[in-house]
Fold:
Amino acid sequence: MDSDKVVPVQSVRRALEALDRLALAGLRGEAVSLQQVAEHLGVAATTAHNIIKTLATCGYVQREERGYGLGPRCADLARSARFGGGWLERAAAVVHQLAERTGESVVLATLLH
Structure:
């Protein structure tokens, strides 16, 4: 078997595509109906329902007044990605050097939300 060949798992791909659809709608302040998810994925409504239900059970999707939107676990992932990769530690080192060179007080801050 060729180890470089990636064969996507269809259910995972569909779930991620559903999240992408919800994220795009969320940027416009809209919720997405189950039918819209089904159409976007090109699947039956029952399949879309199962995907959305699974994502909701795990906290990645939540029911809203007019459909579905991203859940709190998506926000957790976004925060993790934003603060991951060691960028904060690298920035702190640069800020510390700046303070030493200039003799000035320097503050490095990040937003929590």
